[in-house]
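Model: You mentioned two targets. I'll fold them one after the other.
Researcher: Yes, keep them separate.
Model: Target one:
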Amino acid sequence: MTDALPARRLLLVHAHPDDEVTGTGATMAHYASTGAHVTLVTCTLGEEGEIHVPALAQLEARQADQLGGYRLVELSRACAALGVTDHRFLGGPGRYRDSGMMGLPTNEHPRAFWQADLDEAAGLLLEVIKEVRPQVMITYDANGFYGHPDHIQAHRVAMRAAELAGADGPAKIYWTAMPLSVLREGMEAFRELDDNPFADVEKVEDLPFGHSDEEIAARMDGTDHYDRKVAAMRAHATQIPDNSWLYGIAGDFGGEFMGVEYFLLAKGERGPGEGPHDWENDLFSGLSLGEPTAAEAAAI
């Protein structure tokens, strides 16, 4: 299988449809555009998500419980916008259910991802790793970036699968991150927005996420693909309303915030970087790979 795939192969493990866009959409679009093979594994259908389209309200879990099927279609459209053709659900669509926010009764659902047997779920991801043989994998940190149980479980499953893969696993593993310096700049910019998500936050250190600039390993500049990221966000219409602060950022600041994504390096050797913090600008930096395609070579 890998003989037929491009030299550079990237695997992303996300919890719900739309998670791939907000934290890694520009990175996915960048690598897809260079000819790298991008594989997205989503762990649930996002059945417990809040619906922002009134006409579809009856799809919610407490009514028809059909939101997951609708979000499957939204995810397909988002991947098309990003140029990603290889997308799978962990164990197949519906194998694991959205657990809802931490502490809710939905955490106890028998199919809730939060209740998944770790080695069983990791074994399903291991099958994907063996098939694609990605050199780089992206997932969340141990807190799931902001504490959602499915994000935490996605982290556990991804890291366990990489452990089970051993030498055949990804050479580098990144966790999504946000530098505190960028958060500070963002909070100042958000103060001008009517829909300010940080209105009740006095300082960035109070947020459940954020890392010092010294901890950040990579800064991916995907501003050239900012329009693709916004199109992918719009594909997730049930989850991201038209008046979302995300579109406020997109309209007011363009690709400056939306098109740049940051990562911690959890496994592997840090490659050559640039700028005052020597941040990598390529997640494959430092790896010895096969001959790149023409598109890959142009992007390096």
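Model: Target two:
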Amino acid sequence: MRALFLFVALLWGLSSLAAERCGTWVPTEKVRLGAVHLAYQSIGRPGDPALLLVMGLGGQMIHWPDEVVTRLCAQGFRVIRFDNRDVGLSSWARTPPAANLAYQALRHRLGLSVSAPYSLRDMAGDALALMNALGVRQFHVLGASMGGMIAQHLAGLAPDRVQSLTLIMTSSGAQGLPEPSDELLALLARREAPSRAVALQQQADLLAALGSPAIDDDRAQLLQQAEIAYERAFNPEGVQRQLLAILAEPSRVELLRRLHVPTLVVHGTADPLLPAMHGVHVAAHIQGSELKLIPGLAHRFQDAFKEPLLAAVLPHLRAHRQGGQWAQL
């Protein structure tokens, strides 16, 4: 009985230590990287293997759920999350998007060139410059949606530094893959709002449309999530510029074929924005990659799918963390 008590006490102590060092309450820092400055958080011990989280279109670093960040850190990672340029507390471009979004979207569908103020490769350069500024030589990358596209470029820019890739609900950008509905694209691009109240309703509409049909969303909760993001930062023109960067991107198939990094591709079977074939296509073009499809997952980190996502992602990260060693709590 005494041995059992000591064992339980030890586990409790280890859990407490992990919770203390993995708290997401750490301050948000800013670093200037040439003409761009990025806001970021570093969660966990500086000496632990670094895991960089790259968020998707219009998403702020707070859209990585705190409990997910904590679980990742508890595996022995130093988790770094940041706001991409043009969202959150990072740099916003000073001029409005020069291109008409609807016109450029039509050009994209027709396979014509699209103009954008910056590229996804530029955004990958931002992420790499952040790791340089933090003195991190090698690191793991987990990207979601547009963040997964940026992560692909990041692995191409620094093949000797990216130790593993985890790509969630993302795409290769190749022509011919299934496209979202016009209605969903309209919601995604509809960022102008005459008032705060209208902006929150629009964001709640978008969140609902990106969710799984198997989940009955609580409208009040969606509005609360929209309000938190709005109060932190609201930059609809920045989201349009990010969307132009996606539309201007050519197919990344040749880039994917050049990657030789341990890669996990995770996609949902109910994704309305990037249907499952996008994930299948990514995995098919990265040598040695692993594909995991999650039934019912759509294009949001909904509570019901956090555990299935972690169950898919954690074994991959464990396997490539310092030669497969377990976390030292």
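Researcher: Noted. Anything on target two?
Model: Confidence is low (pLDDT under 50) at residues 4-14, 324-329.
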